[in-house]
Amino acid sequence: MVDIAAPRETVFDVVARPYPGRTPRAMRGRLHVLERGSDLVLAEHFTPLAGGRLHAVTVETVRFTRPERIDFRLVRGPVPQVTESFVLEDSGAGTLLVYEGELGTDLWRLGQRWGDAVAARWEAAVAASLASVGAEAERRAAPRR
Questions:
Q1: Whether the Cβ atoms of residue 5 and residue 141 lie closer than 8 Å to each other
Q2: What are the DSSP calls for 60-98, one per residue?
Q3: Which of 44, 59, 101, 143 is the right S-S partner for 84, CB 3.0 to 4.6 Å?
Q4: For each successive 10 residues of the chain (145 residues), what is the average pLDDT?
Q5: Domains of the chain (ranges plus CATH)?
């Protein structure tokens, strides 16, 4: 959960920005949109591992429900099932961004160990993403001088 000093629409726009239109140059090494629809995209996400020497590649659907949520569903990746949501709630001073995520594995104990390893990296990537979204949304919402 992250409290962001910016309007909900601004936060939504920051999260959604790389998906519906042309992928920003800064995101090209981390994101490739395969298909675009009016409220749904199919996108490859690249997450650096081992100090950037390796990359985990996931393919996910991303659904946009303006202005309150963005949902991610894993199609292909290192585990059989992941669903995630960024839920945006109005708060007194801006927006409360709530992250909800669920990771599922198979193969019993072996799958559970693998899921634990993947989850640690996944959570770090999500935390970095939330911090980046918060900083950019607050920058956009700041009064211009």
A1: yes
A2: EEEEEETTTEEEEEEEESSSSEEEEEEEEEEETTEEEEE
A3: 101
A4: 96 93 82 94 87 86 98 94 97 94 92 88 89 96 88
A5: 2-141 (3.30.530.20)
pTM: 0.89
User: So what's the pLDDT on residue 145?
Assistant: 75
Q: How far, in Å, CA of 73 to CA of 28, rounded? A: 20
Q: What is the pLDDT of residues 101-137, one digit of tens each?
A: 999 999 999 999 988 988 888 888 899 999 999 999 9
pLDDT value at residue 88: 98
C-alpha distance from residue 10 to each of 18, 21, 67, 101, 143 (Å): 14, 16, 9, 22, 13
